[in-house]
Amino acid sequence: MTDPNFNEIPAYIPKKREKFMSVGQLKHFIHKLNVWREQLVTEAESTINHIQEDSSPVADINDRATIEEEFALELRTRDRERKLINKIDKTLHMIDMGDYGYCKTCGIEIALNRLEARPTANQCIDCKTVEERKEI
């Protein structure tokens, strides 16, 4: 995956005594998620165009194999990004439902710096760490 442009969006700096997941914070994360989603969709469209343009027959079997391997790699990357788009859509739905920013496991607030780094995070760092240790 490429470096998403959403990292260029300045981090949200909460105001004194601002309630967690205030309107300003929610607008910030909605914008951040939509920018990220749009970038992924644009890259997917670019890949489709690239594959269509570069699919002309190649005489040399080695060149053809190289091209097909490049296409396969691009398609695997786009498949991961398609899954990420689905995750972004689910996150936007969580915002609509009023559940965004809270750990799905323990219910506490997810730190804003964690959400800045990974806007689709749905677990606090402690619960995510425990989950990852269980996977090992």
Element layout with pairings:
Elements: H1 23-53, H2 61-97, H3 112-117, H4 125-135
Q: What is the averaged pLDDT score?
A: 88
Low-confidence stretches: none
Distance between the termini: 25 Å
Q: State the CATH architecture of the largest domain.
A: Up-down Bundle
Specify the number of helices. Answer: 4
Measured as a percent range, the helix fraction is 55-70%
Largest beta-sheet details: none
**Portion in beta strands:** under 5%
CATH fold-level name of the largest domain: Four Helix Bundle (Hemerythrin (Met), subunit A)
Gyration radius from CA atoms, angstroms? 19 Å
In the CATH hierarchy, what is the superfamily of the largest domain? DksA, coiled-coil domain
Structural class: mainly alpha
Please state the overall shape, judged from the principal axes of the Cα atoms: elongated
Number of strands: 0
Number of domains: 2
Sequence of secondary-structure elements: HHHH
- CATH structural class of the largest domain: Mainly Alpha
Oligomer: single chain
